[in-house]
Write a structure and sequence with these properties.
- This protein is of the alpha+beta class.
- It contains three helices and four strands; from the N terminus they run βαββααβ.
């Protein structure tokens, strides 16, 4: 199995926090994909709706996963100019400070 790298960006949940999902999907994400080019193989965006148990809140309101062939490919595409553009765009769609990390897929199985 090839070792794909995921750049995961998570927006922690908080009462009365602002997150404009329409802007995020139609502008921020579109621009991110254009800037990262073919290096970004796949994008997934998820919305947290509960922690696990009934009547709980999620840890993260939204999360995005951008998949790359490897770490080198990610850093070649994610330049300082890309970072500056994307970071300056964040206040346009949210007041939540994102947290992010690079991840490596160590196991994958699918039945869909």
């Amino acid at each position: 199995m090839r070792k794909l790298v995921i750049f995961q960006i998570m927006y922690p949940y908080g009462e009365d926090r602002r997150f404009d999902i329409e802007y995020y999907l139609k502008s921020h994400l579109v621009n991110a994909k254009k800037l990262l080019g073919k290096a970004c193989l796949k994008v997934e965006v998820t919305r947290g709706f509960k922690e696990f148990y009934q009547d709980t809140t999620p840890f993260f309101a939204f999360s995005a996963r951008l998949v790359f062939e490897n770490e080198e490919t990610f850093f070649k595409a994610y330049t300082e100019d890309v970072d500056t553009f994307l970071m300056e765009d964040i206040p346009r769609f949210t007041d939540i400070a994102p947290v992010w990390q690079l991840e490596e897929i160590v196991y994958q199985e699918t039945s869909i």
